[in-house]
């Protein structure tokens, strides 16, 4: 006991008990949304008849390169059961289950959440190739060592979370400053609200703010991402103020667009720097077990060692965005919008039930849940939920290279009226019988002006650019060879 007391008096941070409570419950909530996304979308995207079957991926990629439970078994029933198990476990943690069990059991719960989600990410290919997937895994790994209500928050884990938040914010700031010139001349938001991957219900209004306001937004973003993060490592109350400024900035981003759980998870991480003890008083906890202190110290050493690669990347003139340096996604590099698209293009998919294609053929549009289509439809708020197919369609409109491996199977599933695929869409214009042909057209989309909005009721104006995919059909019975 004496040795244990000598080893751990510096270890606890009891004043952060409330911050840890909120942080853990909120992080479990993000896990819940992530697993729900897998439960509702994984089968259509990566299942046995998915657009990029995970089973085919596991056959060509070894376990050591992408550790995943699905190397053992990858059927639709099993992956679905794992996704719903993740939803149930995350919901239990949100409800306080991890605080009602012994410390070791709470760590097992967090470890199960982490490994289950790692299993989805490591076979998810392009549909899981986003920075916020790695951010959730890195945050979730640190949460294993955050303790529960039976012990004080470990000061080392709180510092590791601040280090993660610093890399998220500072990395994003550097990639902007080093990237597109519009970030340095403060003009990127002239375009960004209109051309971002998934506009939200307020994006039209943000786009029409005065240009002076847009320049102020960019300048404030530089301060929030390049200067404020250093305050996380200062004594209190400076760290709390820095965390508060980051939270305000992230809430502004939540209002202006849909970025899955990226902004919400950044807010969650900021709680690690918020010290509520002056208002709540320090909570009393039991003695920190020596085995737990040792595990936290070992995890800290691991994170410090692995931090070499993302730190070197931060300092590099050829900084990369959203890269994992190991297959466990433990210490990653982050960043977004090193370049800003000036023009918005959208791929519009259409089908017809006519046997012969003529200039008079009647075409009917498929409507996606989130991405712009119908010009009169106000963009919806989906974040923190992630519409994976909608995001890939945004990339596909940037370049046909982004369609490799999944777009052709997607069109084939539309020609078959595949139920799982159609559940990913908002409107299927062929509810009774599948279409005979499907085509894809490329349009340029612009937000309407205030005058156009009042006159037409439309949020978007679109103009035809070119044919993206000529009419295609299935020959023979569904699932037969495609005629392109």
UniProtKB/TrEMBL annotation:
Gene Ontology terms describing biological process: protein maturation
Record Pfam families: LMF1, LMF1_C
Listed transmembrane segments: 22-42, 78-98, 104-128, 140-161, 233-254, 261-278, 290-309
This protein's record includes keyword Nucleotidyltransferase: no
Record InterPro entries: LMF, LMF1/2_C, LMF1/2_N
Domain Lipase maturation factor 1/2 C-terminal, chain residue ranges per copy: 330-470
Localization per Swiss-Prot or TrEMBL: Endoplasmic reticulum membrane
Domain Lipase maturation factor 1/2 N-terminal: 128-276
Top-rank lineage group of the source organism: Bacteria
Recorded topology in the membrane: Multi-pass membrane protein
Keywords: Endoplasmic reticulum, Membrane, Transmembrane, Transmembrane helix
Family affiliation: Belongs to the lipase maturation factor family.
Listed name of the protein: Lipase maturation factor
Lineage per the UniProt record: Bacteria, Bacillati, Actinomycetota, Actinomycetes, Kitasatosporales
């Amino acid at each position: 006991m004496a040795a244990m007391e000598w080893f751990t008096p510096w270890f606890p941070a009891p004043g952060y008990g409330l911050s840890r409570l909120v942080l853990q419950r909120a992080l479990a909530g993000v896990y819940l949304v992530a697993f729900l996304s897998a439960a509702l979308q994984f089968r259509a995207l990566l299942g046995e008849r998915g657009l990029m079957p995970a089973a085919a991926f596991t056959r060509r990629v070894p376990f050591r390169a992408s550790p995943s439970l699905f190397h053992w078994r990858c059927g639709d029933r099993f992956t679905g059961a794992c996704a719903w198990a993740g939803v149930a476990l995350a919901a239990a943690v949100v409800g306080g289950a991890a605080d009602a069990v012994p410390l070791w059991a709470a760590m097992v719960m967090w470890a199960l959440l982490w490994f289950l989600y790692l299993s989805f990410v490591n076979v998810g290919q392009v549909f899981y190739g986003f920075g916020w997937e790695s951010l959730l895994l890195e945050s979730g790994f640190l949460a294993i060592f955050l303790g529960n209500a039976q012990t004080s928050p470990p000061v080392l884990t709180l510092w590791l979370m601040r280090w993660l938040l610093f890399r998220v914010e500072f990395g994003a700031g550097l990639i902007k400053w080093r990237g597109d010139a519009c970030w340095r001349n403060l003009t990127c938001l002239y375009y960004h609200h209109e051309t971002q991957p998934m506009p939200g219900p307020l994006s039209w209004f943000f786009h029409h703010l005065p240009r002076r306001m847009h320049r102020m937004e960019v300048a404030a973003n530089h301060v929030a991402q390049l200067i404020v993060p250093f305050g996380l490592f200062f004594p209190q109350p400076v760290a709390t103020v820095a965390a508060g400024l980051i939270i305000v900035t992230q809430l502004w981003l939540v209002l202006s667009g849909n970025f899955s759980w990226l902004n919400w998870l950044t807010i969650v991480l900021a709680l690690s720097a918020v010290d509520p003890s002056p208002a709540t008083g320090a909570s009393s906890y039991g003695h920190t077990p020596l085995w737990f202190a040792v595990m936290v110290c070992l995890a800290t050493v691991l994170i410090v060692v692995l931090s070499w690669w993302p730190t070197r990347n931060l300092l590099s003139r050829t900084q990369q965005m959203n890269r994992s340096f190991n297959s466990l996604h433990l210490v990653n590099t982050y960043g977004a919008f090193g370049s800003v698209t000036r023009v918005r293009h959208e791929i519009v998919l259409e089908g017809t039930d006519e046997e012969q294609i003529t200039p008079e053929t009647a075409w009917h549009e498929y409507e996606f849940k989130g991405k712009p289509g119908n010009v009169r439809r106000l963009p919806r708020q989906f974040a923190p939920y992630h519409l994976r197919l909608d995001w890939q369609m945004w990339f596909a409109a940037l370049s046909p290279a982004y369609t490799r491996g999944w777009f052709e199977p997607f069109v084939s599933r539309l020609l078959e009226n595949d139920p799982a695929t159609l559940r990913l869409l908002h409107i299927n214009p062929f509810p009774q019988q599948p279409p005979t042909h499907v085509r894809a057209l490329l349009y340029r989309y612009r937000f309407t002006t205030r005058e156009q909005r009042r006159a037409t009721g439309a949020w978007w104006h679109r103009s035809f650019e070119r044919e993206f995919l000529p009419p295609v059909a299935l020959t023979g019975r569904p699932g037969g060879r495609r005629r392109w």
